[in-house]
Predict the structure.
Amino acid sequence: GDYTVEIARRLLSSGHSVAIISIADRHVDIRSDGLRAGCKTIRLPKQSDWNARWKQLREYIEENKPDWVSLQWVGFGYQDKGLPIFFGRHLRNAIGATSLHVMCHEIWVEADGSKSFKGRVYSQLQREVHRRCFKALRPACIHTTTEPYKRALELIGFSAGILPLGSNIHGDEY
């Protein structure tokens, strides 16, 4: 959340219109609309029905017609085992032809090449789910934070740029 708010803050200061929509928010029990850092927020509870969340996102996209959607990707945020099998297809259907940027904060376990057997098997499964998900998403642009993640994404057929994370701790806040 903090990284997303920081990106939104910078976009707002550059004159862009920005909204933050959390489609799997574990910190709310019911939909919550508000403002954070001058940015409209919509928080949809993780435990609510996915179809209802996709419908609300689709309605927002249709009403507001954004130029871009930026997905802050953490596979475990969308499915507890990091296997969001139908996520890509559903998100693409919800946003329609809107250009999509994906920021990969985390990808699959063992993406750094760890050697445990269980880790390798789980990694292969997650890798295939991610590949299919990203194929369905058809992102116009992909970024990640580290060179190992960049190489891992290339192994499943996706080019990514490196976008280092800045600190979300500001001196004026302390």
Notes: The radius of gyration is 16 Å. The mean pLDDT is 87.
